[in-house]
Amino acid sequence: MSGTGARRIRVRVEGLVQGVGFRPFVCGLAGAYGVSGFVGNDPGGVFIEAEGEPATLDAFTAGLTGQAPPLALVERVSVEPAEPVGESGFRIVASRQGEFPDGALVSPDAGTCAACLSELRDPGDRRHRYPFANCTDCGPRFTIVTGVPYDRCATTMADFEMCAGCAREYGDPGDRRFHAQPVCCPACGPALRALGADGRPAAGDPVEVAARWLEAGRIVAIKGLGGYHLAVLAADGSAVAALRARKRRESRPFAVLAPDAAAAGTLVHLDPAAELLLTGARRPIVLAPRRRDAPVADLVAPGARDLGVMLPYTPLHHLLADRLAAPYVLTSGNLTDEPIAYRDEEALRRLAGLADGFLMHDRRIEAPADDSLVRVFRGRELVVRRSRGYAPAPIGVPWPFPRPVLACGAQLKNTFCVARGNQAFLSQHIGDLESYETLRSFAEGVEHFCRIFGVRPAVVAHDLHPEYLSTAYARDREGVDLIGVQHHHAHIASCLAEHGHGGPVIGVAFDGLGLGEDGTLWGGELLVADLVSFRRAGHLEAVPMPGGAAAVRQPWRMAAAWLDRIHGDALPGLPVAERHREQWPVVVRMARAGLNSPLTSSAGRLFDAVAAIAGVRDVIGHEGQAAAELEARVDPGERGAYPARLIEGEPLVIAAGDLVGAAAEDVAAGVDAGRIAARFHRGLAAAVVRAVRVLGEGTGLRTVALSGGVFQNAVLLEAVLCGLERERFTVLVHSRVPPGDGGIALGQAVVAAANDRR
Q1: HSE-up of residue 200 (Cα within 13 Å, Cβ side)
Q2: Which of 216, 323, 470, 494 is the most buried (most CB within 10 A)?
Q3: What is the rounded average pLDDT for all residues in the chain?
C-alpha cells in the first residue's frame, strides 16, 4: 500500500519469460517484499506495475533477474516511473493483445520435474499415474503453443476446460501450478488410449497394454511431446531387426531410453558432465561410450562406439519405463528420410505398416519436435541436433538485425532461422529436404515461427546451391530481398555468432559437400572470414567424385578416384580394388574423363576413401556412416601420424593424397584398421594445424573458428584443437549450435544481416 515515501514504477521484462512460471514468481516476489500492483503477459514479454518504498522497489526489480524461475531467461528489464495510486495487494491481470516490435519468447518443452514425478508415484495423490501431470517448472510449452501471449487459450490445451480442482490450483498464488497454462488432471485433461494395428481400441490400461506388446516383441508407436516414436525393447534383437526392416533404417543407430540415471550407467560410461545433461530439464539424447556388457541388442547401434541414451521426459515415458524396468528403443515415428509424424490421423496412416500398436492421447501437437542429440566435449555440451528442449530458445547476438530475416538453411539436417532485434530463433530439427512431406513440414514451421515471433521477413537468406529445396523456397518468396550465402561461409559465421565474435578469423570448415563459388563441390575449406565476406585461403586437395551422388553412397568409389590419382595404372593390389574388381575400371575411366565426376575438396569424402581402403566401410546406409565408423575404429594407443605436404600458393592446398597413399601402404603391409584410422586422424589434424599456422603468419590473425559436420568427430576435433592451442591460437568451437548443417541457418542469418547493415 502507498505510504508517504512510496513510489510506483512500470516495469517491462523481456526474454524467455512466458510459459516458465514468471508471473506467479513475480506475485510471490511482490508478496515477499510487500509490493502492491499487478503483472501480465503481452506479445512483448511481461509487464508489471509495482508500488512501494524506493528501497523495496529496488530490491524487487533486482530480484526479477537474480531470483528468476529455473526455466526463465531474462534478457532485459526496463523501468520507468509512474504515478502512485495507493492500491493494495498484488495480482495477475489479463494478457494484452496487440503488436509489439520485438514480440515475446516461447519456452522450450521441459522434462517432468521432481515434484510432479513424486505425485505421479503417490497412490494418495489425485494425479497418481496421470500421464499428463505438469506445473510451472515442467511440461509442454513450444509444442502446444498456437500464438502469443502465452495463455491457455493460445495453446492446444484450450481444448480442455479446467475442473474446479485445477482451477483452484491455477488461481492460488501459493500453488506451484499458479498460472501453469497446461494444468490438468484425470478429471479434466487429456486421456490415453491404446489402439491395435487395425485402429481398434485395445481393452485395459493403455500403459499396461503397451508394456505387454513390447514384452511380446511388438513395435509400438508412442505419442510424445513433439510427435510419435517407435519403441521396442532394447535387448530384443528380433524386435530391433524388425524395426529396422520396417522403418527402412538399415544401420543408423537408435537411441535407448533408460528408466533412470543408474540404469543409463549400465549402458554407457557417464562422466559428471554427461550425467548432468542426461538428467537436466531439457532431457536430450546423450552420446556416450557404450559399455561392453550393455544389455542392448547389437543391432541397436551397429558399428558404433557410442550409444545414444536418454531418460524419460514425460509422465507417460516414466510410467512405461517403471512398468518395463528395462531400457527400450525410442526412435522417431517415420520412415527414413520422412519428417516425424505428429498428427493423429496422419500417424495412423503413415505408421500403419510400421507399428503393431499405438499408445496415443488426445492433446494436439501444434509444432513437431524430434529429440535433441548432444555429446560432451572437454566437459562441455556439444549439440549435434538441436530440437526438443532447446528450440525455440533464442540465440542472442551483439549485432542488430536491421530488418527481419528468414534464413532457409541447408538441404540436409535442415533447420531454418528467423531473426529480429538482437535475437535469432533457430528452428527445431526439420530433417533432410528430400521429400514433399519434409518440405511441407519446413514450410509449415516457417509460417509458425513467423507468427509466434511476430516476424515478417524482409530479407531471406539461402544457400548458393540452385537445386536445394530450401533455395527454391527462398526464391519463391515475394516482396523480399534475397541474399545467397556460400555454404562454408555460413558454417564459420554460425560459429562466430555463437561466440558473439565479428571476425575476421581463420575459419576451418570441414563437411560433406557444399557448392563453392567456382562451381566445384567444396568441403575441406580454410577461409579468412568475417560476417560480411570471406576469402578461400586454402583447401584440401580436390579429386573427382565418380558418379556424383553415387560416390556418397559408395565410399569405395572415392577410394578408386584417390588411388588412381596417386598410382594410375600402377595400382598395387589392394583388398578394396579386389572387392570391386568388376566395376573398378569403369569408375576409374569415369573419374579420368570427368564424366559425372565433379571435383570436390570434401573432407567427408576423404574420410570415406580412407574408410574403404582400410576395410571399414565400402557402402553406406546413412550419411556420414563410413566416417563415423572410421572414428570408432581409432586405436587410442597409436601415436603415429601420416605426413601430408602443404602446396604453397593462393589458395594453399593440403595434399590429402599423401594421407590416402600412406593408408594404402599400411593396408598393403598388413597394418590393422585401428592403427590406420588413428594415423589418418592425427595426420589430417597436423596438416590442418600447419596450414592454419601459415595463414596466421600471412594474415596476422590469431583466432580460428572450427565448423562443419566433420568437427562432430571428437577425435579429430581434439587433435586439431590441441595442435592450435600449442601454436597459441584462440580457437572457437561450437557448443550450443550444431557444427553440422543443423546450425547453418544461423550463419546465413547473421551474414545476411551484416550485409544488410552495409
Answers
A1: 2
A2: 494
A3: 94
